[in-house]
Structures are given as structure tokens and as C-alpha cells.
Specification:
Number of strands: 8
CATH topology: C8orf32 fold
Largest sheet: 4 strands, antiparallel
Number of domains: 1
Order of helices and strands: HHEHEHEHEEHEEEHH
Distance between the termini: 34 Å
Strand content: 15-25%
CATH class: Alpha Beta
Number of helices: 8
Strand order of the largest sheet: 5-4-3-8
Radius of gyration: 17 Å
Length: about 220
């Protein structure tokens, strides 16, 4: 999944000049790219490689995390993945109708951890692109405290910690219900904790459910 030797991954790194940057600027530039240049949205499967996420141009926690890890490792920044389960209620709004009702109560979630300047940083704030988050904040302008829904679970909806500046970042952490621990790669996480859904539900998600979810997301981003 971390196919950072793929020509599209290597080409992006060369065009952006990330390897020529200092370590902090390199890390921040990659983080910002994955957060804002790769839109929030639902791919066909959690197990797609980083190059496919880049090709899609969108992703969610697990798939954007795969791309982030591939770019970080290609640029010499140590990283790992931390797996969790989250309550589906934080997806309500992005999920709606029968898609939400038929979804598992607990959904596989992950964030990326990077080793930088002698410590591990927890990075989750890259999941939602800034345009989508801003649209969501405008739609719920009256909310000034905790918020849960539409892909968000935070204590401070107006000021979520999504910018990296030598700090942990979070956007869904308040929805976590189970901790699976850290893994060296997304492949290892999925080997132990792949989402358990029936073949029929998986087919419905791939061919209908995720498209409805992405439509809901686009409505907020474009509002």
C-alpha cells in the first residue's frame, strides 16, 4: 500500500521540491498537501495503495493516511500508523438515510504518527480539507463548543487543532471508542483489523453508498 516508488508519487515529490526542504518544512508541506490538496471523500476501499489515493484526489482517514505515510517515508521522515475504532455517529450527515442505518456501529479509523525532533507526534487533522471544514463551520455557525457529525468529533468546533506546527493535530479523536495500537504499515493494521461487513454491504458501499456520501460532502464544500 505504501507504494512510494510509484512514478506518480516520485513525480509529485520532485515537482514540489520537498526533498530540498529542511525537515520541519518538508513535514509541514507534505501534511498540508495531504490535508488540503487531497479532498475529504470516500474511496472504494481502505486497502487501496497510496498512488490510487493520489489518483482519486480524495480520501478519508485511512486512505489519506496511507498517502501521507508514503510521502513521508519517501522523503525520509519516520512514521507509523495508529489504529482505532470510532463510533459511526461522527459520520452522521456525511452518511445519511439507509447508508447510515446500515453502517456498522464501530468503524475502522486511524491516524499517522511521525517521529520528529526526538518525539512522536499524532497527526489526525489532515483528514478534512480546509474548504470542507470551513463550509461545515459556516453551515453550523451557531456551534461554539463540541461538535460530532459530518466527519468531525472535536471539543472546540470553531478552533479545531488541525494545523501542524510541532504539535499533535486532531479532528475525529473525540469519537474514538477502541484503541488497536500502533502498526508499521497500513497493511499490518488491515491484516488484523479490517472492517467486518458482509459481501452485500461491501458491494452496496462501493457502488452506491460512498457516492451518496461524497455527494453530501460536495454539497457542504460547494455551499
Amino acid at each position: 500500500m505504501l507504494d512510494y516508488s510509484n512514478p506518480s508519487i516520485q513525480g509529485l515529490i520532485e515537482v514540489r521540491g520537498w526533498r530540498e526542504l529542511g525537515e520541519f518544512d518538508r513535514l509541514k508541506a507534505i501534511y498540508d498537501f495531504v490535508r488540503d490538496d487531497v479532498a475529504f471523500g470516500y474511496n472504494v476501499d481502505d486497502g487501496i495503495p497510496a498512488s490510487r489515493v493520489l489518483e482519486d484526489g480524495y480520501g478519508q482517514c485511512n486512505t489519506k493516511g496511507t498517502l501521507l505515510m508514503a510521502l513521508l517515508r519517501a522523503c525520509g521522515i519516520p512514521c507509523r500508523i495508529h489504529g482505532f475504532a470510532i463510533d459511526k455517529k461522527l459520520q452522521k450527515g456525511a452518511m445519511s438515510g439507509f447508508v447510515y442505518r446500515r453502517a456498522p456501529q464501530h468503524i475502522l479509523h486511524s491516524w499517522v504518527e511521525v517521529h520528529f525532533e526526538g518525539r512522536w507526534y499524532e497527526l489526525e487533522g489532515f483528514i478534512l480539507d480546509r474548504e470542507y471544514l470551513s463550509g461545515l463551520q459556516e453551515r453550523f455557525a451557531g456551534c461554539t463548543g463540541p461538535f460530532c457529525g459530518y466527519g468531525v468529533a472535536v471539543r472546540d468546533f470553531r478552533h479545531p487543532t488541525v494545523d501542524f506546527d510541532r504539535n499533535d493535530t486532531y479532528i475525529q479523536s473525540e469519537g474514538i471508542v477502541q484503541d488497536f495500537g500502533v502498526f508499521d504499515s497500513p497493511d499490518e493494521l488491515l491484516q488484523d483489523h479490517r472492517q467486518e461487513i458482509s459481501g452485500i454491504k461491501a458491494f452496496a458501499y462501493r457502488h452506491l453508498g460512498r457516492h451518496l456520501m461524497n455527494r453530501n460532502i460536495r454539497k457542504i464544500r460547494d455551499s
